[in-house]
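Bit of a strange request maybe. I'm writing a small parser for structure token strings and I need a real example to test against, not something I typed by hand. Could someone generate the tokens for this chain?
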Amino acid sequence: MPSWIEMVGYVASILVASTFYMKTMLPLRSFAIASNVAFLVYGYFGSLYPVLILHLFLLPLNVIRYRQVTKLLRDVREAAQGDLSLEWLIPYMRAESYRKGSTIFAKGEPADTMLYVHRGRIRIADMDGVVQTKIFERGSVFGEIGLFAPDRKRTATAIADEDTDVYSIDEDRIVELYYQNPQFAFSLVKLITRRLIEATVVPSMQGREV
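Reply from user aminoacidic:
Good idea to test on real output. This should exercise your parser:
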């Protein structure tokens, strides 16, 4: 076997070993692809057909995984720069209707759902014994803060200010989407951050969110 083929084999082995030192997926897949190419050359010119067949299989697999990782990173960047609209969640949600004056949830109740206003208006009031009011109208999401509160309870009461239709999504589904969908995860983090900033910057106008 010519010495240059042996050298290619050593390079391929070094590239494989390097993948075990990678802490993130993109560099790991990059080194894996490079090692696949090197082993293909090594296997072909060295007549090592089991090695050749193995890396003929592994190369497209690593390319697919590389593209999946890059797409995920691109989706995360787009989500981080995007708006806070969560209307796309509606197919995952359950429709509910409330008459004017109905209580959607009360302060102190377990927080197990997040809600989206489809039609009407929601009034949030009586937070920590202080009568404060915040209005949520069509397109607004509310109820998310309670899901992440230490005691997992509502910090205020939500009342239908008029006949209102909402969509709700339960905690298990939220957790599933959070881990599967980077756009949703970033939108939720941005939404909660905005709520907290509003409550801090203009406490006289915005109470703590539910």
